[in-house]
Amino acid sequence: MVEIGVYSLHRFADSFCKGCFMSATKSPAECQTKEDVRAEINRIDQALISLFAERHSYVTRMAEIKTDPHEANDPARIEAVIGRVREAALRLDLDEDQAELLWRTLIDWNINYEKGIIIARNRKKTT
To answer: Does Isomerase count among this protein's keywords (predicted)?
Structure first.
């Protein structure tokens, strides 16, 4: 079941925006039209979804390694990740609060996903 979810996510990432962006990239200053800007945003969206799919496969593996659903929530680890995200956002001149919100949302989703896998696996062991 887990492999199907990862496979589906990778398949979605591969097909997300086929054909809607050019392989060549333009800097923001080189974009002359809304279409130019949209093409670059589409290219970046494809890269982001591919990275999220890759990250998701590691989250899935972590859930396979953990044995107790409470292990999915590791406050010290979460704060370390958030600290790195905020530092990176600052270096890249991004809003640190927005970056933190985005990552906390991602982390919350991952925690729930991990818990679900662990609980389902533990139920199978007891039946």
So the answer is: yes
Q: How many CB atoms lie within 10 A of CB 59?
A: 20
Q: For residue 104, what are the contacts with CB-CB under 8 A and spacing of at least 6?
A: 78, 82
Give the Cα-Cα-Cα angle 112, 113, 116 (nearest 5 degrees). 85
Residues 91-111: tens digit of each pLDDT: 999 999 999 999 999 999 999
Cα(118)–Cα(50) distance, integer angstroms? 25
Please choose, from the candidates 123, 2, 126, the residue with its C-alpha nearest in 3D space to the C-alpha of residue 69: 123
For the beta carbon of residue 76, count every other beta carbon within 10 angstroms: 7
Name the band, by pLDDT with cuts 50, 70 and 90, for residue 125: confident
| This prediction's pTM | 0.76
